[in-house]
Amino acid sequence: MTIKEPRSSQPLAVNLLKTVAYVLGSVLLFVAIAMAASAIVSVFYAEYETAMWIAISAGITALFGYTTRRLVPRPRSITVKQGFATVGLAWFVFSIFGALPYLLSGAIPNISDAVFETASGFTTTGASILADPSLLPKGISFWRALTQWLGGMGVIVLGVAILPLLGTGGMQLARAESPGPTPDRLTPRFQGTAKRLWIIYAIITVIEMGFLSVGDMTGFQAVIHSLTTMSTGGFGTEATSIAGFSNYTKWVITFFMFVAGVSFALHFRAWSKPVEYWKNSEFRLYGLIIVGAIVIVAGGLLGGDLEPITAVRDAIFNTISLVTTTGFWSTDFGQWRPALQIMVVGLMFLGGMAGSTAGGMKTFRIGVLSKAAFADLRRLVHPRGIFVTRFGGKRVSDPVIEAVQSYFLFYMFLFMTSTFLLAFIDANLSEDLDLITATTAVAASIGNIGPGLGEVGPAGNYAGLPDLAKWLLSSLMIVGRLEIFPVLVLFTKDLWRR
Q: What is the DSSP letter of 355?
């Protein structure tokens, strides 16, 4: 059903900005509540000064959200155009307000660093400027993890699930924010779908907390790592990520990283009928890619000095972490042999299933691109033949193929131009970045992965980059999380024309 533009005597840009303001004001209230929860954590651990600053941050955010929501009328409907613009602008604003707890508490006093850490959190990228997260106050560490958990399923989708006033345009907002080609409906109204997705997301997170808490993690560590595993974010509590924890903990996190890379709509359907997993063609491709990558990486590690069981365990953990774009690491893959590092870079572009919390290009797009390319190859051999692109036995329409190809083109163009810009910025503002660092920093930001190679590898961080480079990478994280189009559409003339 096509939603028509609301008639109004006001310019289109004014209506658009009013819609953006109303939705943004509504959802900022949830961000403020999350900050308040972090303040309570600080109080629990007797970090009273930190709690005060987080509470002040929550108050500022809530005041802005409430005031904005009261100043503009509720939109009668939200069109596709308004949905993309709203989400595209909102995520940049979230990153600004989300930086307040870091700035006011003094945990991260530099505004560029604070916004970078916040953008990395909400976009579930996991890139960090912190050398040792264990030095953070507990309330700030909890806020850091909570930004990833909220961003994993989508802050605006949470608003759609809870606020009836956003239900009118819920599908349009979710289409722009949900990771994947199209949001999967579980109910006729997307508000019901959003509720079910968030419920299954929360349930699996709590289940992981239970498994981790019986291992060698403290209760606080179990909560933090569960929030950042299910969001495929990768923020942890230790400088060595997961490397210092027991094998039991690593296997638990490995399993839940794999789960987080699967469509949550599929999880919901398979809750009562597990056979739904195997019947889903994208799930089978997702599993096949992971198994193939593990075999290659394990083969490369077995040729080194590692014991076979250690090599296989490291291959499984780090491969799943890279494919699902979680960003945890159990060993410094920046020290692997060059051939395996090339494999690491390749894995950065894949990602999990559409509808999961993973970043990257998504398994669905990889499958469609491969099938379409093979069909084009057959057309060259048989010019008069008629070849249909199918995925999972179903025909893929030409508009979907074109959309996937356009996304791939924009993705690679953004990757190449941003790599050049990052190298140019660093060459003029500090020491020259080596090509590996510049390339993987951009790939890790667009793909929402976190650690790259070189200076930004697992054993390093992003603190040494110039402030301008951090702003560039922060923007790339948001662009990658929203899958490019909601941000690029802000720069098109058609968005602002009636």
A: T
Residue whose structure tokens are 């790259």: 452
In 3D space, the residue among 62, 65, 60 whose CA is nearest the CA of residue 22 turns out to be 65
8 A C-beta contact, residue 215 and residue 248: yes
Closest among 156, 187, 184 to 169, alpha carbons compared: 156
Model confidence, pTM:
0.90
Residue 46 Cα to chain centre, angstroms: 32
Pairing type for strands 394-395 and 390-391 reads antiparallel
Angle ∠(314,320,323) on CA atoms, nearest 5: 130
155 neighbors 122 (Cβ within 8 angstroms): yes
Alpha helices in 271-386 (DSSP H): 275-279, 281-302, 308-323, 338-347, 363-381
Residues 302, 306, 312, 314, Cα dihedral to 10°: -120
Q: Where are the domains of the chain?
A: 12-260
Helix (H, G, I), strand (E, B) or coil at 164: helix
Please state the rounded mean pLDDT for residues 379-393.
80
Q: For residue range 271-281, what is the model confidence (pLDDT) as tens digits?
A: 888 898 988 99
From the CA atom positions of the chain, what is the Rg in Å? 22
> Does pLDDT of 3 surpass 80?
no
**pLDDT at residue 222, rounded to an integer:** 97
Predicted pLDDT at 176: 55
Instruction: Measure the CA–CA gap between 70 and 64, rounded to whole angstroms.
Output: 10
pLDDT tens by residue, 257-267: 999 999 998 99
Among all chains, which residue has been given the structure tokens 């889903």?
280
**Tokens read off for 5:** 């533009």
Spatial contact of 389 and 401, defined as CB atoms under 8 Å apart: yes
> What are 287's two structure tokens?
């599993």
Report the chain's mean pLDDT, rounded to a whole number: 86
DSSP assignment, residue 386? -
Whole-angstrom distance, CA of residue 221 vs CA of residue 242: 11
Phi, psi dihedrals of residue 13, rounded to the nearest 5°: -60, -35
pLDDT tens-digit series, residues 319-371? 999 999 999 999 999 888 888 999 999 999 999 998 888 988 899 899 989 98
The confidence band for 251, taking pLDDT boundaries of 50, 70 and 90, is: very high
Q: How far apart are CA 229 and CA 252, in angstroms?
A: 10
Per-residue tokens: 113: 């660093």
